[in-house]
Each structure stands twice: as C-alpha cells, then as structure tokens.
Amino acid sequence: MVKFFTEDISFEFKEKMATKKWLKFVAQSEVKKLGDINVIFCSDNYLLDINVKYLGHDYFTDIITFDYCEDDVLSGDLFISIDSVKDNAEFYGAEFKDELNRVIVHGLLHLIGYDDHTDEEQKTMREKENYYLSFRDVVVS
Question: Among 12, 31, 63, 79, which lies 20 to 30 A Cα-Cα from 109?
Fold first, then answer.
C-alpha cells in the first residue's frame, strides 16, 4: 500500500490515487509487488538532517530512499524534498508535477534494485525514469 505524508512543510499532494495506480504498474512491469511504500514530502533542511544523521552525507538532495524490501515485495520510505524538486524543475525547465513524478519513480526504481552511483547506472536510471514517465498518463486515465 502506498501512503503519503508531510513533515515540516505545508504541501497538498492531489495525485494520490493516480500515483498509486502508476507505481503499481511500474512494480508489475519489473516483476515486483508493491508492499508498504511511504512517500514523505519534506523540506530541504529536514532531508539534510536525515542525510547527515543516517547516511553521513552533509549535502542537500531531492530524495533519500530507505529500502525495506523482502524478496519481490517492494517496501520502503521515500523522503522527498519539495524545495529541491521545485528548484530542479526550474533548473531543467520542467513542470513541477513532472519533476515530482520523476523523483517519485526514481525512489521506486531504487527499491526495485536500480542504482545511480556510476555513469552507466545513472544512464540506465534516467532511461527507466523516462520510460515509466511516458506511461504515467496512459496508466492513470
């Protein structure tokens, strides 16, 4: 089950049902099942605190994914900085909604097993993001 929360910010996510349907499609396409996925929207500073405390990284990021998967069941927490998503959308000339969907699917792809540490992994991750983003409106309509 996918659930949505906010921490330390005021943010209303209006695409809950559509996003749940889309993420289920992504999981099934990768031969996985959705377990408990928590999507937590927060601020840059909130996410920075998590990054320092749990990962030992002292820098801002748009998402941190905590993986609780077992076998083919995807479970985890996706902490997403709305501040960074807004900044990235502006930087890349994208709509906020599109950038937010990219970050959400990026987190799910991490739970599926994709990584982004090397150039090759980043290329694969971006291809997967684009592939699944191209289906979002089709799947949810």
Answer: 12
Distance from C-alpha of 28 to C-alpha of 57, rounded to nearest angstrom: 33
In angstroms, the CA 63 to CA 103 distance is 7
Number of domains in the chain: 1
Q: What is the pLDDT of residues 38-87, one digit of tens each?
A: 999 999 999 999 999 999 999 999 999 999 999 999 999 999 999 999 99
CA 134 to chain centre: 16
Contact of 66 with 26, CB cutoff 8 Å: no
Classify strands 73-81 and 63-67 as parallel, antiparallel or unpaired: antiparallel
pLDDT at 141 over 80: no
**Coil vs helix vs strand at 44:** helix
CATH number for position 53: 3.40.390.30
